[in-house]
Specification:
By secondary structure, the chain is of the alpha/beta class. The chain has 3 domains: 4-220, Spore Coat Polysaccharide Biosynthesis Protein SpsA, Chain A (Alpha-Beta Complex), CATH 3.90.550.10; 224-317, no CATH class; 406-630, Aminoglycoside 3'-phosphotransferase, Chain: A, domain 2 (Alpha-Beta Complex). Helix content is 36%, strand content 22%. It contains 20 helices and 29 strands. The strands form 8 sheets. Strands 1, 4, 5, 6, 8, 9, 10, 11 and 12 form a 9-stranded mixed sheet that branches. A 5-stranded mixed sheet has the order 14-15-17-19-20, covered by helices on one side. Helix 3 links the parallel strand 4 and strand 5 (76-80). Helix 16 (526-533) packs across helix 18.
């Protein structure tokens, strides 16, 4: 494919985004730490482009300064406009630049994962003068397209006509000859489309959803405060997060965070405040926006900026389906979780597939755990036939998200001790009464499961992710057999089996709830401890981890009146760390490559670092495994 030029429309006033744009030009409004225009450039940089043109008008000096610091600076050509020229006039003003060949036009306020390469390939194969990237988006559907995919008209307002209507995404590919249909001065590109079409030229379309089966590409027009917040929260969801806190934020330990929260660069969080479904913009000093009639600590469904607060519509900023259910959860499960209202109270609906083998087990487990005061979400009701259940709403903030807020060491250590107390409860009292829970009593984390984990690691990570060709497989299998035999020989208790920070919810007031417990089994207790204290999702400093390990062992000794065998536990801990980290890396490979949840890839470096640390303890006993791990 030949190289193209790209033109980004960035001159607008952003009037619908005021007062935000009184402080920040729309292209530089941040979305999780990156200006919107930078996210556009990230997408464009993957294309075979030659140069990038950007038109400027409003707060152009600020954008010019940003461009000077941009890594693509030497590829960018700026086109200042003394007066705004409109979408057509902007292209005409850059005619000499755009006449070099096929060019792509992209609005600076569009965030998407649209396949731009597919758009270019379609354009080159179609003999179009202009190809408009379109999709079915009822709120903005205004383009009338004929049966050949060509633009034929514009629909104003609601229409009952039996015509194909699409929404323009703000992205198009044009041939240089299109510029001949643009007049000098102020003009609209839409008028030029129809003028060119009337002259016998083809103004075609490309359905950006074509080829998508179970979903559709992400797209958002950052045109209003609600749309901006919705886009930021959707970016969080697509990155597997509920919270973004810029690294410049020094401390926010006094801030209670619930829902979806974005705290951008250079903010001050003063006093004890509560944020729920909020964006805090650069330069904000939170705590100045309360009134005598308002709870001074609570900010919900809003954007906070330097000296202003914008209230948002909850129904617009969060993702709801046609039944007004909010989809929640960011993990690797195929189950669906929705936040719904029941008797004016927020509850969580879990929907499982009809063949889900763990549904009935989870219902029995939750009753068993609650019987022993294990803090899992309360079961409200369950429909065994439909594989649905209603639970207490434990919120959106996991321990993983809670830890994103810079906190003091004592605060972190104290919450980990609370979590370890839950582990101790499961490993002792819950285990002692295992006969009263038949579905759990018969579930053993045994040799076959340990071997499954290591095979999973070999296939999904070593081979699929790292493309390792294992030459001495029989020798490696012999070592993995020995590892599984040793792990299986360790005395067993009830274990959660996935006791990591994303499965511990931190509710308001730091109440904890344990989730994703349907995989619980009878296995080595060190597996849970390894999952929590050597968690790839959060790096604990070594001295704190040592103190927490002592806390767990002291609690176990106290419960068993000194009969807890510390030596057996410590020797099993190394084995369980190896097993756990191999399983985790296998999962990251599977979830990212097979399930398409690529955000799991960012946890690979820490998972691999931990696994290499584990391997160093056993290199003499498992030399083939050690060599494989160190070579990854």
């Amino acid at each position: 494919m030949n190289k193209i030029n790209v033109f980004i429309l960035a001159a607008g006033l952003g009037e619908r985004l005021r007062p935000i744009t009184n402080h920040i030009p729309k292209p530089l409004i941040p979305a999780l730490g990156k200006p919107i225009i930078e996210r556009v450039l990230d997408k464009i940089s993957a294309l075979p482009f030659n140069r990038i043109g950007i038109n400027l008008h409003y707060k152009k000096e600020v954008i010019e300064e940003w461009v000077r610091r941009c890594p693509l600076n030497d590829k960018i050509v700026l086109f200042p406009e003394e007066n705004i020229l409109g979408t057509g006039g902007a292209l005409k003003n850059a005619q000499d630049f755009l006449q070099e060949g096929t060019f792509l036009v992209h609005n600076s306020d569009i965030l998407s994962d649209i396949d731009l390469t597919g758009l270019l390939e379609h354009h080159h194969a179609s003999n179009n003068l202009v190809t408009l990237a379109v999709h079915d988006y009822p709120k903005f559907n205004s383009l009338i397209v004929d049966e050949n995919g060509s633009l034929s008209g514009i629909a104003r307002g609601q229409s009952t006509d039996d015509v194909r209507r699409w929404a323009f995404t703000g992205i198009a590919v044009c041939e240089p000859a299109f510029l001949d249909f643009l007049p000098e001065g102020v003009s609209s590109v839409v008028d030029a489309w129809f003028k060119a079409g009337a002259g016998g030229n083809k103004i075609g379309t490309f359905d950006v959803c074509s080829g998508w089966v179970d979903s559709r590409p992400y797209w958002s027009d950052i045109g209003s405060p609600d749309a901006y917040a919705a886009a930021a929260f959707e970016l969080l969801r697509r990155e597997g997060e509920t919270v973004y806190i810029h690294p410049s934020i020094g401390r926010c330990a006094d801030t209670d965070i619930q829902g979806h929260v974005v705290i951008e660069e250079g903010c001050t969080l003063g006093g004890r405040i509560s944020l729920k479904n909020c964006i805090v913009l650069p330069g904000s000093d939170v705590g100045k926006y309360s009134t005598p009639l308002q709870d001074a600590s609570l900010y919900e469904n809003c954007i906070l900026g330097p000296g202003f607060k914008i209230d948002l519509s909850r129904s617009e900023i969060l993702s709801f389906d046609k039944d007004k259910r909010q989809l929640i959860g960011t993990g690797g499960s195929d189950r669906k979780y929705y936040r719904i209202q029941r008797d004016n109270k927020s509850v969580v609906l879990m929907q499982c597939k009809v063949d889900d083998p763990d549904f009935e087990r989870q219902i029995e487990y939750i009753r068993y755990f609650l019987k022993h005061s294990v803090p899992v979400p309360e079961l409200i009701e369950a429909d065994i036939g439909k594989k649905n259940a209603l639970f207490e709403d434990a919120g959106d903030i996991s321990l993983y998200s809670w830890l994103k807020c810079p906190r003091g060491r004592m605060e972190i250590e104290n919450i980990y001790k609370q979590v370890l107390n839950i582990i101790v409860l499961i490993h002792t009292e819950v285990t002692d009464d295992i006969s009263s829970c038949p579905l759990l009593n018969g579930r053993i984390f045994d040799y076959d499961h340990f071997r499954w984990e290591t095979d999973y690691f070999i296939k999904r990570f070593a081979e699929d992710v790292r493309n390792i060709n294992i030459s001495n497989r029989s020798v490696l299998d012999a070592e993995l057999h020995k590892l599984a035999v040793k792990a299986d020989a360790v005395p067993k208790s009830v274990i959660h089996r996935d006791f990591q920070s994303q499965n511990i919810m931190v509710m308001k007031g730091q109440e904890l709830r344990l989730i994703d417990y349907q995989g619980a089994r009878l296995g080595p207790p060190a597996y849970d401890v390894a999952s929590l204290l050597w968690d790839p999702y959060y790096h604990l400093e070594d001295r704190m981890r040592a103190r927490l390990l002592d806390h767990y062992m002291d609690k176990m000794k106290a419960y068993y009146s000194g009969k807890f065998d510390e030596n057996i536990f410590k020797s099993s801990l190394v084995l369980c760390r190896l097993q756990r980290h191999m399983q985790a890396l296998g999962a990251y490979g599977f979830l990212s490559l097979v399930k398409g949840k690529r955000y799991f890839q960012r946890h690979v470096p820490e998972g691999l670092r931990l696994l290499k640390d584990d391997a160093c303890y056993v290199k003499d006993d498992y030399p083939e495994l050690y060599g494989l791990i160190m070579g990854l």
